[in-house]
Write a structure and sequence with these properties.
- Helices cover 42% and strands 26% of the residues.
- The protein has four helices and three strands; from the N terminus they run E-E-H-E-H-H-H.
- The chain has a three-stranded antiparallel β-sheet with strand order 2-1-3.
- The termini are far apart.
């Protein structure tokens, strides 16, 4: 079985903003975020994993992560997660 690279989106319950990243090991990376071991999110906890995608190459995962950080990527995520956002309010 091929190894996947995961592009993921975390939602900060502290500042109500998303954080996008990518990793080879989604479970381990999420645990690192939860424990405050990731500099960019340690002060934004608690965090929820709200979205992820599996990619076959690191380059594709990185490209997707960068897309999520653009204006159009944020619109995509807002539409993709509209039901989740509506339920949490």
């Amino acid at each position: 079985m091929e190894k996947f690279y995961y592009t993921y989106v975390l939602f900060s319950e502290k500042d109500n903003k998303n954080y996008a990243g990518y990793t080879k090991n989604l479970k381990l990376r999420f645990e690192q975020h939860q424990k405050g071991l990731v500099e960019s999110t340690k002060n934004r906890r608690p965090l929820k994993l709200v979205y992820f995608e599996a990619c076959l190459s690191q380059a594709d995962a990185l490209k997707r992560e960068k897309y999520f950080k653009t204006h159009y990527g944020r619109i995509f995520l807002k539409n993709r997660l509209a039901k989740w956002y509506a339920e949490k309010e």
